[in-house]
């Protein structure tokens, strides 16, 4: 005799692809883990966090809070699920994949992308900025986005995340090396003050790569040579072209 067990019930009214987009557990990272960007963090708090936690502040002031896939159907499902799970935040990374400037095309793939973008515009037009759902979009190529997508009324706040300055780089290095066993020959200031266009993710990648290099040689302490090789590797990978600043 065979026995069976029910391991889960798939809800019929929610697309499985949309369902996996839901964040089950809140991340443990805080603003303190970023290192710098105080102005940008403050703008995000004002645009996203404060309207969800204290909407009465905007009502008392008589102002409205700023508005913050695969195909049109998924876009509709995404917004519907977000409303059902409110308060919630919709985060769309690399929005330039579907939000680029429109042009005539007979390619089926391009037409599908344009239909997806039109559905996104439709959802944003019917979006209640005073509601419990906020939308955040991120892109490295803001100049390629369709003006209809980023016009006021759809995307009311644009926040630029520039490359970190020296003080910010120092704080980011400090965050990612705080638990590392550094050799006496490692002087983080050498990398902080270097004239390299390093992003926050580049700094993290250098620290991670330096640790991996030490592990490969079965060492528990990370030495200057590890950081030098790691930095060279990261810069080499970026040589093909540095991504533009990040916008939200």
Automatic annotation (TrEMBL):
Belongs to the AAA ATPase family. The keyword Nucleotide-binding applies. Keywords: ATP-binding, Nucleotide-binding. It holds the Pfam family AAA_lid_3. The keyword Methyltransferase does not apply. Gene3D superfamilies: 1.10.8.60, P-loop containing nucleotide triphosphate hydrolases (3.40.50.300). PROSITE patterns: AAA. It comes from Octopus sinensis. This is 26S proteasome regulatory subunit 4-like. It comes from the Eukaryota. One of its GO terms (molecular function) is ATP binding. Residues 185-229 form the AAA ATPase AAA+ lid domain. Residues 68-163 form the ATPase AAA-type core domain.
